[in-house]
């Protein structure tokens, strides 16, 4: 959650002489590279300022624009971040040594055995107990699981190091 008060800004290196958050310093310290990022510099700047507690209206004043424009830039930035996360999840799923489809209508109690069997076949160790694995799958599946019922097809992938992803 973003605080309303800029006084909750992180370290002193984030703040300029006037007590304001220095967006350029934040981006530099975080290693932001506009050429390698899915975010524009403006989007990164707005996110950095929001994460340091500035309100959209304060950011708009600083940037010489409207609060509505800042809101739009922030929404686009957050959408781009979510798309980047989804892209990474997709790439990891493609390269994961274990991929298990859990069909719609499956009882969630049956999912751990399917995952364990596929992991055994691939020589990948899963460090979660069956109840923990069911909980992980259920939580990461979101609305695709209701109670014990898998309501939408799931793809459970397990990386070589045992990390589990649910898509």
Automatic annotation (TrEMBL):
<dbReference type="InterPro" id="IPR007630">
    <property type="entry name" value="RNA_pol_sigma70_r4"/>
</dbReference>
<dbReference type="InterPro" id="IPR029291">
    <property type="entry name" value="Tfx_C"/>
</dbReference>
<dbReference type="GO" id="GO:0003700">
    <property type="term" value="F:DNA-binding transcription factor activity"/>
</dbReference>
<dbReference type="GO" id="GO:0006352">
    <property type="term" value="P:DNA-templated transcription initiation"/>
</dbReference>
<dbReference type="GO" id="GO:0003677">
    <property type="term" value="F:DNA binding"/>
</dbReference>
<feature type="domain" description="DNA binding protein Tfx C-terminal">
    <location>
        <begin position="84"/>
        <end position="166"/>
    </location>
</feature>
<protein>
    <recommendedName>
        <fullName>DNA binding protein Tfx C-terminal domain-containing protein</fullName>
    </recommendedName>
</protein>
<feature type="domain" description="RNA polymerase sigma-70 region 4">
    <location>
        <begin position="38"/>
        <end position="80"/>
    </location>
</feature>
<dbReference type="Pfam" id="PF04545">
    <property type="entry name" value="Sigma70_r4"/>
</dbReference>
<dbReference type="InterPro" id="IPR004645">
    <property type="entry name" value="Tfx_DNA-bd_arc"/>
</dbReference>
<dbReference type="Pfam" id="PF14601">
    <property type="entry name" value="TFX_C"/>
</dbReference>
<dbReference type="InterPro" id="IPR036657">
    <property type="entry name" value="Tfx_DNA-bd_sf_arc"/>
</dbReference>
């Amino acid at each position: 959650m973003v605080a309303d008060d800029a006084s909750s800004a992180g370290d002193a290196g984030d703040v300029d002489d006037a007590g304001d958050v220095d967006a350029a310093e934040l981006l530099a310290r975080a290693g932001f590279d506009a050429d390698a990022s899915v975010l524009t510099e403006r989007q990164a700047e707005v996110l950095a300022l929001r994460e340091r507690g500035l309100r959209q209206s304060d950011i708009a004043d600083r940037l010489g624009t409207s609060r509505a424009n800042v809101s739009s830039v922030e929404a686009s930035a957050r959408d781009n971040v979510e798309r980047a996360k989804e892209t990474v999840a997709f790439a990891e799923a493609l390269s994961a040594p274990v991929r298990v489809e859990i069909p719609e209508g499956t009882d969630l109690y049956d999912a751990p055995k399917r995952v364990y069997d596929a992991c055994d076949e691939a020589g990948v160790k899963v460090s979660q107990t069956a109840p923990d694995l069911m909980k992980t799958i259920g939580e990461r599946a979101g609305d695709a699981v209701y109670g014990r019922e898998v309501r939408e097809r799931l793809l459970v992938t397990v990386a070589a190091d045992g990390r589990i992803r649910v898509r």
